[in-house]
TrEMBL record:
This is one of the proteins that bind and probably mediate the attachment of the 5S RNA into the large ribosomal subunit, where it forms part of the central protuberance. One of its GO terms (biological process) is translation. Belongs to the universal ribosomal protein uL18 family. PANTHER family: 39S RIBOSOMAL PROTEIN L18, MITOCHONDRIAL, LARGE RIBOSOMAL SUBUNIT PROTEIN UL18M. One of its GO terms (molecular function) is 5S rRNA binding. Pfam families: Ribosomal_L18p. Part of the 50S ribosomal subunit; part of the 5S rRNA/L5/L18/L25 subcomplex. Contacts the 5S and 23S rRNAs. Keywords: Ribonucleoprotein, Ribosomal protein, RNA-binding, rRNA-binding. This is Large ribosomal subunit protein uL18.
């Protein structure tokens, strides 16, 4: 019996996360979640188990609520980079989860890099 799309997504997410944990011990994780309408990102310190900063396309001060596009993802990427600097984080590893590195996920990562966050 074939795996469902959800099962394949979960397997891909675990595979990506486990590989990143082996390679990037000690750095904080930039975790991305993309739904059909929004995108959100968190800076997570796995050692302490806390979220250092977060940003989402649902935030009203961005002015992009309800916009499902690459520009909204880029704004979220810029915002998380600014908030990371305020939290004292300059370097993180990019955890795309089970999402493909394409479109909105790629735009978010590129915008965060351009704003000064090393991924």
């Amino acid at each position: 019996m074939a795996n469902s799309k959800r099962d394949l997504f979960l397997k891909r997410r675990l595979r990506v996360r486990n590989k990143l944990r082996k390679v990037n011990a000690g750095r904080v994780r930039l975790s991305v979640h993309r739904s059909s309408k929004n995108i959100s990102v968190q800076l997570i310190d796995d050692v302490k188990g806390i979220t250092l900063a977060s940003a989402s396309s649902l935030e009203k001060d961005l002015g992009i609520v309800g916009k499902n596009n690459v520009e909204a993802a880029a704004k979220v990427g810029q915002m998380i980079a600014e908030r990371a600097k305020k939290a004292g984080v300059e370097e993180a590893y990019f955890d795309r989860g089970g999402f493909l590195y394409h479109g909105k996920v790629k735009a978010l990562a590129d915008a965060a890099r351009e704003a000064g966050l090393r991924l």
